[in-house]
Structures are given as structure tokens and as C-alpha cells.
Design brief:
Blueprint lengths: L1 H18 L4 E5 L5 E5 L3 H6 L5 E15 L2 E8 L2 E9 L2 H6 L4 E12 L2 E15 L5 E2 L16 E10 L1 E2 L5 E2 L2 E2 L11 E7 L2 E7 L9 H7 L6 E7 L9 E9 L2
Parallel strand pairs: 8-9
Antiparallel strand pairs: 1-2, 3-4, 3-6, 4-5, 6-7, 9-13, 9-15, 10-11, 12-13, 13-14, 15-16
């Protein structure tokens, strides 16, 4: 009789959880208690306050780095993208999180110099696969609408390479580090313009190091080149995309 009663109570418990909706995720916390965590849409995440707890389901698009048990990822779902910063995971887990892998991430919504990111995160791998296609946002440069696509994979087309100036006053098509104080293997910074406005782009060396095609392509740029760009719409004191591909369409 006791077993029947227990089974009945368990059945009621499951029905109660199910009635919370399809986005209610049952998890155990450190105390062993069962809690409900609601999975957010990207719109709900965007509306959440900085410092609030967030849970999203998203898909690995690129792996920036792994260091001392923490990893940084560019991720995207069909309704928007997320930058996951220094999420604890083992090297084995990092290697297994291939492009397209679906994960549920719970953490804090944070912001650093305008970049929205999820920090203090934990994750669980789920069934499912999704690889985003880049969307052309060239026409949105300089508009308030651009930030809606923050962290997404995007295209910029018909951009003209402009001169950058280092701390010594020298002009170049790109700089190692933002001020030219770096060296081979450092981040690459370059400026490109469209419709009379200039923007800064970065090849983030943790993501695309000196052996990658994009790193070599940027080092080969000349002032006045017309180029198409693909990258993740990162933010730092304004739009600062992390570029993963460059195609030269016209020479000066």
C-alpha cells in the first residue's frame, strides 16, 4: 500500500511540473532540493537586468579559448546569440563541444564595456544541432538597430580599408593591438568604412591565430582595398566585430 501511495504522489508531482510549461527545467541545486529554472527566449534574455540569473538554450558556433578549466564561446540560437565568458569545463568537455552542439546554460547576465555576456555559468549538453548562417548587417551600421544582432554571425560588404595610426604617428592598413604595440600573434585591428563612416574590426588572436587564413589576409590588406567581412558582432565601447573571414573584392 505504501508503494502505491508513493507512486501516486510521484505521478502528481510530475503532472505539476509538466503544468509549469514546456520551458520549465527541473534541476538539483547544491542542497539537493529540486528547483524550477525557466528557459528564456532571446527577447527575455535581452530584457533581463544586468546581474540577474538567466537560463538559455543555445548552440556552439565558435570556441574562443580554453584556459585553466574555463572556456569562452560564441553561441547562437535561431532567435539570437550569446557570448559565454569563462564557463567552467574540462578540456575533454571543451573538445566535445563541437560547432552546432546544443547546450543549456545557466549563469549571470553581465556586461563589459557594452558587451552582453553570460558569466558564472554552468551548462548541460542537450540533443539537437544548429549552425547559424551569417546575416548581412552592413545597412545597419551606425543605427540603433545593429545592437539587436549583438554576438550573431554577420556579414559586412563593400567596406573600404582606412588608415590606422599607431602611437608613433605611422599609418598602416592594420595594427598589432589597438595601438600598434603588439607583435606577430597579437590581436589585429583595422578600420574600414562604408557610406562615409569608419568602424573598427578585430581579428581576435585567441579565436583566429596567426596560422589562420583570416589573420594572414588582414596582414595582406592595403589602404583603399574594398573588402567583405564575416564575423561575430562583438561589442567594446561600441561595435567591434571579431572577424573570422576577409575577402578582397577590389584593390585601390
Amino acid at each position: 500500500m505504501k508503494r502505491i501511495i508513493v507512486l501516486a504522489l510521484c505521478f502528481v508531482f510530475v503532472l505539476t511540473l509538466t503544468s509549469c510549461g514546456k520551458d520549465a527545467v527541473v534541476e538539483s541545486n547544491d542542497t539537493g532540493k529540486v528547483t524550477d529554472t525557466e528557459v528564456m527566449s532571446h527577447a527575455e534574455y535581452a530584457a533581463a537586468e544586468i546581474g540577474s540569473d538567466v537560463t538559455v538554450e543555445t548552440y556552439i558556433q565558435a570556441k574562443q579559448s580554453w584556459w585553466e578549466g574555463k572556456a569562452t564561446f560564441y553561441t547562437q540560437a535561431p532567435d539570437g546569440a550569446y557570448f559565454i565568458y569563462q564557463m567552467p569545463c574540462t578540456k575533454e568537455e571543451f573538445d566535445a563541444l563541437t560547432v552546432g552542439t546544443k547546450i543549456r546554460v545557466s549563469g549571470k547576465k553581465s556586461e563589459w564595456s557594452g558587451e552582453s555576456e553570460i558569466t558564472d555559468a554552468t551548462f548541460k549538453t542537450l540533443d539537437g544541432n544548429y549552425v547559424a548562417e551569417a546575416v548581412d548587417v552592413t545597412a545597419l551600421l551606425g543605427t540603433d538597430e545593429l545592437i539587436v544582432h549583438q554576438n550573431e554571425l554577420v556579414h559586412f560588404t563593400g567596406m573600404t580599408v582606412e588608415a590606422k595610426t599607431d602611437t608613433a604617428g605611422n599609418e598602416a592598413a592594420f595594427l598589432f593591438n589597438w595601438d600598434g604595440t603588439g607583435e606577430e600573434g597579437s590581436d589585429l585591428y583595422f578600420d574600414a568604412s562604408v557610406n562615409g563612416s569608419k568602424y573598427t574590426f578585430t581579428v581576435e588572436s585567441y579565436l583566429c591565430g596567426p596560422d589562420t587564413e583570416v589573420y594572414k589576409a588582414v596582414k595582406d590588406l592595403k589602404i583603399g582595398d574594398v573588402i567583405d567581412l564575416t564575423g561575430y558582432l562583438y561589442w567594446y565601447e561600441g561595435v567591434n566585430p571579431h572577424i573570422i573571414a576577409v575577402t578582397k573584392t577590389a584593390a585601390p
